[in-house]
Amino acid sequence: MLPELGQVTLIIALLLSVLLAIIPLYGSLTARDSLQAFARPLGAGQFVFIAIAFGILTNAFLVDDFSVAYVANQSNSLMPWYYKFSAVWGGHEGSLLLWILMLSGWTLAVATFSRRLPSVMVSQVLSVMGMVAVGFLLFILMTSNPFDRILPNVPADGADLNPLLQDFGLIVHPPMLYMGYVGFSVAFAFAIAALINGRLDAAWARWSRPWTTVAWGFLTLGIALGSWWAYYELGWGGWWFWDPVENASLLPWISGTALMHSLAVTEKRGVFKSWTVLLAILTFALSLLGAFLVRSGVITSVHSFASDPTRGAFLLLLLAITVIGSLTLYAFRAPVVHTRAKFGPLSREVFLLLNNVLLLAAMLLVLVGTIFPLIADYFELGNISIGEPFFNLTFSPIAVVVGILLGVGIFSRWKKTDEGYLLRKMIVPTVVSLVVAFAVVLTMGSAVSAEGTGFWSSFSLWAFFGVLSASWCAAATLQDVWNKSGSRHGRLHGLRRQSRSFYGMVLGHLGLAMVIAGATVVNNYGIERNVRMSPGDTATVGDYQFHFDSVGEREGANFTALVSRFDISRDGEPVSTLYPERRRYVVQRNVMTEAGIDGGFLRDIFVAVAEPVSSDAWAVRLQYKPLVRWTWLGALVMAIGGFLAIADRRYRIKDEATERRKATVAGGAGAEGRPAEAGV
Amino acid sequence: MKRALLFLPVIVAIAFGIFLYTGLGKDPQELESALVGKPVPAFELADLKYPDRTLTPEVFQGQVSLLNVWGTWCPACRDEHDDLIWLAEEKGIRVIGLNYKDNRNQALRWLQDLGDPYQITLFDPQGKLGFDLGVYGAPETYVIDKQGIVRYRHVGVVNPEVWEEKLGPVVRRYQQEGS
What we know:
Distance between the termini of chain A: 53 Å
Largest sheet of chain B: 7 strands, mixed
Oligomer: heterodimer
Helix content of chain A: 55-70%
Distance between the termini of chain B: 69 Å
Order of helices and strands of chain B: HHEEEHEHEHEEH
Strand content of chain B: 15-25%
Shape of chain B: globular
Largest interface: A-B, 53 and 45 residues
Number of domains of chain B: 1
Mean pLDDT of chain B: 82
Shape of chain A: flat
CATH architecture of chain B: 3-Layer(aba) Sandwich
Number of helices of chain B: 6
Number of strands of chain A: 10
Strand content of chain A: 5-15%
Number of domains of chain A: 3
Low-confidence stretches of chain B: none
CATH topology of chain B: Glutaredoxin
Mean pLDDT of chain A: 85
Number of strands of chain B: 7
């Protein structure tokens, strides 16, 4: 009975979102407050019914209701409860329901935290979000119903979840990622609302900013979790594969990063309005495109969902309506009036514009690389593979330049920056980053290069520029903090005076520096050895000795595992003991490699035991991965920066702040008045 | 004039949408290789089992073969493995493996564990032949005729339905040719 009820609640939610898409919008266009007042209750109601549907599906998993086709395909009675729980979003239908749940959650959040906004704006934003919800609810009900039954022949047990997905990473990775994807729908809705009522102004940018930043923060976390999961779960020790699905999450991330920066310019200076609106539309469109690429089967990927042309066609239609509709609106309504604001060639406006240009170039590269098989086929070039080499060769230089420009741009000022001033500011970061880059490249290079200690044999130009860019970006950011925190009441007072959004920006940039540093070092100086080992053998990788001590067995909930013991030492000093596993999953008869990883801030030691090569010898992959953790830690720091920025006082106690600003309007004591606010 | 420029995004979007739509119709599982009708690209690769033995396109001469691209890193390859064994043993099809971007020890162990449907396995750790063939992802299976000419390409898992509907007819056609 319950699954049918789930379907009914989804239908009710669809009806509510249709009403949400129409009534408040109509009310706002005809200036009827009574109709606009429906926006919040409808948004809340939609959330409640979708949450009930999600709860019912979750319940079906927890009680092993294999009469539901989706449950039978994704779950198994032997799985521990937490994997049954996460299996809800392990397949296409359930992950789509999660997506919709998130969308309605964001709608509810906008309804709740927008008390200060004009009612017209709120109505229109919620209506636009209602439209998006209508599209996705139709999609799930018409093509991907998670509540479909297998009757009358109910299977005795489920097919089990793909063992790759039976992992903590899967419990948290998709929800984070979807929070990000779907979160960009808020920025999109704000942009559309602003286009509808013609209010593309600083206020619009200010309202959009926190939503964009928080969605971006979730997406950052989601991507980092996915990368981390691939690292330890796929058993290969790589952290980024340029897989179409990974790329699909990177596209809106890059575009969202550009949007955050562009929104800052629009808020502070009132320029780039058309551009910012376009970016908001583009970012959400790329989120949808990602969903399309992953679920339509247009592009084959290691982890794409079972492909289905009907779903692909439906998603493409959704994408087309959203994108063409909003871009047509844009073409008619975007302001063409040339803004009066003037800015010089070295102004912060120009640096942020350059940031946007570079980010968009990077985004286009990733997009082209991802859909290249389609392009090649379209122009009948044959099926040409482009993979990692293409991305590494084209993406890395852009990342390096972004890092370098960031370090310059951070010292620039709105409107106009004095050249001499800029050059003086750059002295310390230049010296620091050159020293760091040479030091890192020379020490790590000589540690890795096997033959000789000659200068050029150990010098890698790529590594040099990567480390230079990262340390430059970090040094410039820290110097900026140092400069801004000067105060006659002492340094500590100066540091306290800075706003949270300033520290958010600082963390965002330091996080980026960490990611660049980590990616450069691990890709250039990581060591990987594939060896054949028997218990008792010892192998050396870099400075570390890996001693294969013994093998044993262990029973898991739904698998049996062969556990090996490796003792790792360095110059005779024990470092750690690792227990990599080979798991054989009973139901799906899959074998999975669980790597043994000794993680550290500066390096990871990675042992994966692969197939046995004889009765007592195994193929073993040993890896030394310096700074690999910095890629995820950097992303974490970036995301924390984003969350810190939206915790800024000016967003937090909105009403009180408005009141206070009104009271002290002459004093200019409002949050926006402080110099630190120049930070973006 | 400026207003006209603002229509550019929507025009680009529509063009891109049409492009994606054509891609949707085709579906990569159906993508024809540019190599269809042409000989297998030249290669010199080691035999997976006998590293000292060098293999060239000669291996395709004289008999219709399936060239199956696989790797131990590819979960879908595990799914199709039993069906490849079925093809080799029950249907008597000559299957040649292309071990793609893989590790020799792992690959050998895989064949030992799961059975070996391949008469010959080419070992291509750098993906050289894979690149020349235009492999986008494993598994992929090619039908190669007696003269070593590529006749069909299938992207994705091979199973009895794929065999009956797609690969089987092609194989049978070229088996009859000139016999």
